[in-house]
């Protein structure tokens, strides 16, 4: 059995790391390559880069960033943001990314999941699902959280796995940036219904929140951004705390 | 010189980055001729076994790799391709190792097996010089090579499977040494310097 993973997430705009609250109010947190190097040294198990600029002319800049990151870290990393077809995926994987995360594109074309899983293997394809509760429904949002698709979030999680996604990155938009804890209930429901690994995202604020996600929701990995960027929490402290509480982590 | 085979089924960039960090003399290659001139060969691999074997055939490397006398290190899918066949796409592979690959049971386990898992060293090998038993390495795979008489380290994910194999000059690791931090670099360095 693999250890539970801690994954710092770097939202990248023009090569710099930024972080907002509830998907807005961006704050700058430094150079992506430097931060990646720091997290690698500090014991992160994996990294996620989400390119939030993702316009056509920025694609080349992202590829260059992926190449630079791949040169300095010896842990796996996922890249997402604005990926629309298998050609984009091919370029990112060749540049050194281990996995890509797909969000808006797979809602528009679900078969991109099966096509890319066939071409690159399921282990390289992460379905990134932004989830928000509106009234009594929990729905999938796309385009960086700006557009409600009206698709039921739980059903969509099952569908992406059925099509060949090798991992789910589930972000609770209600929780994102609040430091109020992960969406334990939704994560647990998905985890107990699918066979692929689940990465929890959105809401981490305290050590206890990570423990809850691992113990209550049984997720495989926890992702956080600003907590680590602004040194509010050290990865080593977090891992020691988890280990003391009987969670298997890589120290 | 180390030849890293680029057959369109591997993350050669990551292996190349790790070898650069180790200051190794290496080339990314895809022809028989280039492989014949190498002292050691690395066969990386991610993706689908049947697609990978097809690419090896297209490059006309199938026979050469089978009869190679120089040290070869298969990584992840590259190790699985050393088997007789793979149940991933039901394809005949290089036939260096006996038997085929199996798929993890997704009813019992999280599949793919993805993340850092401890390996249990069963037999000393130059490949493991300076590596502590129960060291963690990064894995990302849905198919595995069952334990066989050439298994030198195992790992557990619902079942025990081969984490590393060695048969004569053929070495294989199921994990990604190029993505497994300093311990992974040590394995690559051992292959380059000692195997």
Protein architecture, described:
The complex is a heterodimer of chains A (251) and B (195). With 251 residues, chain A is of the alpha/beta class. Chain A has a single domain (5-244), classed as TIM Barrel. Chain A is built from ten helices and twelve strands. Chain A is globular. The mean pLDDT of chain A is 92. With 195 residues, chain B is an alpha/beta fold. Chain B is 25% helix and 30% strand. Chain B contains six helices and 14 strands. In chain B, the strands form four sheets. Chain B has an eight-stranded mixed β-sheet with strand order 2-1-3-4-14-13-12-9. In chain B, strands 5-6 form a two-stranded antiparallel ribbon. A two-stranded antiparallel sheet of chain B has the order 7-11. In chain B, strand 5 (85-86) and strand 6 (91-92) form a beta hairpin. Chain B starts with a strand and ends with a helix. The model of chain B has no long low-confidence stretch (mean pLDDT 96). The A-B interface holds A 1-3, 5, 40, 45-46, 67, 70-71, 74-76, 93-96, 98, 118-124, 166-167, 195-197, 220-221, 250 and B 11, 13-14, 17-18, 20-21, 46-48, 51, 106-107, 109-117, 136, 138-142, 156-157, 176, 178-182, 184-185.
SSE map:
The complex is a heterodimer of chains A (251) and B (195).
Chain A: E1 5-13, E2 16-21, E3 24-31, H1 32-42, E4 47-51, H2 59-72, E5 77-80, H3 86-94, E6 99-102, H4 104-108, H5 111-120, E7 125-134, E8 137-142, E9 147-152, H6 153-163, E10 167-172, H7 184-191, E11 198-201, H8 207-215, E12 221-224, H9 226-229, H10 235-244
Parallel strand pairs in A: 1-4, 1-12, 4-5, 5-6, 6-7, 7-10, 10-11, 11-12
Antiparallel strand pairs in A: 1-2, 2-3, 7-8, 8-9
Helix pairs in contact in A: 1-2
Chain B: E1 2-5, H1 12-21, E2 26-29, H2 32-36, E3 40-43, H3 49-58, H4 62-67, E4 72-75, H5 77-80, E5 85-86, E6 91-92, E7 102-103, E8 113-118, E9 120-121, E10 136-141, E11 143-144, E12 151-157, E13 159-167, E14 170-173, H6 181-194
Parallel strand pairs in B: 1-2, 1-3, 3-4, 4-14
Antiparallel strand pairs in B: 5-6, 7-11, 8-10, 9-12, 12-13, 13-14
């Amino acid at each position: 059995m693999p250890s539970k993973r801690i994954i710092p997430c770097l939202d990248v705009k023009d090569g710099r790391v930024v972080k907002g609250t509830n998907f807005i109010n961006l704050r700058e947190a430094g150079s992506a390559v430097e931060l990646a190097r720091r997290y690698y040294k500090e014991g992160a198990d994996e990294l996620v880069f989400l390119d939030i600029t993702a316009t056509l002319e920025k694609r080349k800049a992202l590829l260059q960033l992926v190449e630079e990151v791949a040169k300095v870290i010896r842990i796996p990393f996922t890249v997402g943001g604005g990926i629309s077809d298998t050609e984009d995926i091919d370029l990112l994987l060749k540049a050194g990314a281990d996995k890509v995360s797909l969000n808006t594109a797979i809602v528009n074309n679900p078969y991109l999941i099966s096509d890319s899983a066939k071409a690159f293997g399921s282990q390289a394809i992460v379905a990134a699902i932004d989830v928000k509760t509106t009234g009594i429904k929990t729905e999938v949002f796309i385009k960086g959280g700006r557009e409600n698709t009206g698709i039921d979030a739980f059903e969509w999680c099952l569908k992406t796995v059925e099509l060949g996604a090798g991992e789910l990155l589930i972000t609770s938009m209600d929780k994102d940036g609040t430091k109020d804890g992960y969406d334990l209930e939704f994560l647990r429901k998905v985890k107990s219904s699918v066979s692929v690994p689940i990465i929890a995202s959105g809401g981490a604020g305290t050590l206890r929140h990570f423990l809850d996600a691992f113990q209550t929701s049984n997720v495989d990995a926890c992702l956080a951004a600003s907590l680590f960027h602004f040194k509010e929490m050290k990865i080593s402290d977090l891992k020691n705390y988890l280990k003391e509480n009987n969670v298997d982590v890589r120290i | 010189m180390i030849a890293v085979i680029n057959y369109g089924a591997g993350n050669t960039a990551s292996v190349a980055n790790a070898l650069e960090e180790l200051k190794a003399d290496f080339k990314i290659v895809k022809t028989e001729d280039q492989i014949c001139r190498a002292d050691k060969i690395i066969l990386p691999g991610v993706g689908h076994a049947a697609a990978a074997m097809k690419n090896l055939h297209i490059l006309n490397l199938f026979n050469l790799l089978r009869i190679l006398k120089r040290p070869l290190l298969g990584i992840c899918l590259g190790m699985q391709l050393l088997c007789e066949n793979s149940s991933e796409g039901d394809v005949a592979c290089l036939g260096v190792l006996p038997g085929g690959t199996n798929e993890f049971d997704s009813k019992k386990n999280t599949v793919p097996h993805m993340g850092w898992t401890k390996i249990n060293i069963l037999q000393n090998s130059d490949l493991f010089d300076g590596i502590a038993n129960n060291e963690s390495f990064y894995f990302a795979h849905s198919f595995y090579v069952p334990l066989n008489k050439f298994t030198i380290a195992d790992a557990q994910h619902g079942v025990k499977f081969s984490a590393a194999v060695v048969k004569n000059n053929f070495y294989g690791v199921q994990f990604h040494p190029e993505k497994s931090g300093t311990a992974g670099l040590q394995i690559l360095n051992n292959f380059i310097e000692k195997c």
